Amino acid sequence: MAEMLHRRLPNGINVFIHPTKKFKTILVQLFFHRQLRREDVTQSALLPAVLQRGSAKYPSRRQLVLRLEELYGAELTADIVKKGERQLVVYTLDLVHDQYLPGENRILQEGLEILHELLTNPVLENGVFREEYVRQEKEQHEKVIKGLINDKIAYAIERCLQEMCREEPFSVFKYGTLEQLREIDATSLFGFYRRFMQESPAELHLSGDLEPEQTFALVQEIFRFDRGTEASVPPTQVHIPVKDVRYVTEELDVNQGKLVLGFRTGLTYADADYFALLLYNGILGGFPHSKLFQNVREKASLAYYAYSRLEKHKGLLLISSGIEFKNYEKTLAIIRKQIADMAAGNFSREDFDNTYNGLRNQFLVEEDNPAALINRTVDGILAGRVWTTTELLQKMQSVTRDDVVRVAEQVKLDTVYFMTRRGGA
Amino acid sequence: MTRVIEYEHLKEKIYTRRIEPGLDAFVLPKKGFNKKYAIFATNFGSIDSHFIVEGEGKELLVPDGVAHFLEHKLFEEESGNVFDRFAVLGASSNAFTNFTNTAYLFSTTDNFSECLEILLDFVQEPYFTTESVEKEKGIIEQEIRMYEDNPQWRNFFNLLDALYQYHPVKIDIAGTVESIRQIDKDVLYKCYRTFYHPSNMTVFVVGDVDAEHVLDQVEANLAKRNYQPLGEIKRLFPEEPEEIARDYVEQSLVVSQPILNLGFKEHDVGYDGKALFKREIVTSLMLDMVFGSSSPLYNELYEEGLIDDEFEAGYVAEVGYGHTIVGGETSDPEKLAGRLVEGIQRRQREGIDAGTFEHYRRKMTGEFLKSFNSLEYIANSFPAYHFRKINFFDYLQVLQEVTVEDVNRRLVEHLDLKRMARSVIVPKTWKQ
Questions:
Q1: Which domains does chain B have, with CATH numbers?
Q2: Low-confidence ranges of chain A (pLDDT < 50)
Q3: CB contacts < 8 Å between A and B, how many?
Q4: Domains along chain A?
Q5: What is the ipTM of this complex?
Q6: Residue among B12, B28, B34, B255 with most chain A CBs within 10 A, to mutate
Q7: Distance (Å) from the C-alpha of residue B418 to the closest C-alpha of chain A?
Q8: How far from A243 is each of A164, A320, A414, B226, B333, CA to CA, in Å?
Q9: How many helices (H) does chain A have, and how many strands (E)?
Q10: What is the pLDDT confidence band of residue B332, given thresholds at 50, 70 and 90?
């Protein structure tokens, strides 16, 4: 694969171009970085929705969508992502490459122009956002915040994290709060928008069959707007001592119990030992051959899913499983046994090798997915170093069994959350 | 004999071979990709619950959820679990069951031939024991419970139950906690014998592979098994009336706001091949024009706060059944249903003009091209189309043949209020 190009625009936006010939599309992603904090998380989460209601050139949502559709079904979406104690506002533009469209050669340029227009030229009324758009999007956003409960698996995980990190910024919900939402109006949000564009560190990624120099020139030509001094985003709090395990039970009128365990590892993507932790997590619960799947599901028939995963910027490990209410104690005991086995080094050579091979496969296939590669680059930027696939594989290869046992000692259970039926089991 | 089909516009080539005793295998080489993906699928899904058992000539009605249960148990071998064998090779394996087929698959970057051999072997070598069947019941029971708490999934099946009077598509793919308790190894073997014959199956491989080599490997694997030709599979379906079963169904769950699904039942079924593919494409185009995110109706409803940006409409075109489902979360399902009906009627009166039609055709061309980024999407879609005698790669060609008249005809004929049902999830009070 050709080299990635990284260069900074005069207005401070970092541009990353990832040339590849594998795809029929060009993926464009623009990231704005924000400190995750209660004061303005709701504004940042609401802002993209208001901007997508229209611009001076395409003054309604419908006109904007029609314009995008003309570019062979181009899609422009905005997402809110949490990485550690950092909130990312991400715009994604997915375009078909001209070479599959006879007679077309300006799809990328037109797509970028629409993105630029949407960000810099909103529909204004009395010098601020149009009141009607803000009101309607506040109503929609209220539903987004309240809608967390609709997905019980995601809700249980979010609740566990909230309880566990209740005194840290990490507990802030990425979509914000209803209380804050009520305070927002067209004027205050417009003021926030100006600050947001001025101060948020930003990165623009482009992946596809692109000639880097030409593409950079095109981006430079379009993204010319002025920005101010960038606000620095403080580092995520990682080293939080664990005292006693906290048990939280919540009663809901549901058919299945949801068990979530939150652990602190003290290790992030920036640490040398992160790769040992990656192996640890893989052996414990990252795959069907892992301890959790084998022992909770295959041997004890207690669950359909039982897995663990890492939050690589906050240094957390989560275990999640859906079980019969009455099996809470039994499942918890089996999970604890797996954790103890990890710490005691009770895993086989085969467990270790299978996990290594599985992770290797995951790193390699990321190269087949433009969004995954961009995400990896962003993770690298946050950790202070962007690694290539070859480097990542080398790092993983140097991990020994002793390294895994050593990091196992750092994995500390903090919170056990259980969603149970009303009235208990 | 390998056939090579070239799709100039897509810049893709497919290699295909008919392998004794009647399996069609396909390879789509993708240069430069690390991932290699193979899928081995059978034309047997949850709706195939009543049939004549191969070799016995006897009619059998199986408990609900058997196809899905069989999928789980095929991973079991005398020596252990197939997952482990893939894991040693660094591959990840999986499977899924839907209404009409069951598919087994793996994804890997290395050791492709070894992985393909394991896939071909385990799917062709069932090993069911009473003990392992019993053990699986607890696992599948929790899978069913998980879906019982999933509001979209419940709303979807509630709607199918309202649309259909007898057709087994109205029954949950995994069955119920009660129905799966009746499953034993004998019924699994009977299903296996009837539906897991190569002539009822297909193999699709995508990735940076040598197509001839892959097809030779599949052929060699099948050749050693002494298959006898399979006669016609006799699937028995109840006579399904044109009329829907009920026009309204409701369930309360722990959700933040109601969810509405409107369903329209297909009344003229039994097609496959190009006729069915064209119908699917015409209907999808039509739905996008009426309900899609750039339609006037969508934008009115959005501005009124009756829908959110997850609102969507989709069509399912199977040989034996078909339906459209439109819906999403809403503050007022009653009002939304009324507004959707008004919007449909207005659109039926006004019709769709040629300019609008071309706009959406261009959009769908782009969307199809974009879908080629995902090897999984291609591989998972292809067999389901193949079993309906459709070549998925003909999409752009069929799309070009569609006319604005086709779409206007479909708009009136398919969105028929006489065959419309509503399903609603209402919120339970849940705050403590």
A1: 3-223 (3.30.830.10), 248-427 (3.30.830.10)
A2: none
A3: 174
A4: 5-222 (3.30.830.10), 246-421 (3.30.830.10)
A5: 0.94
A6: B34
A7: 31
A8: 11, 22, 8, 65, 48
A9: 15, 13
A10: very high
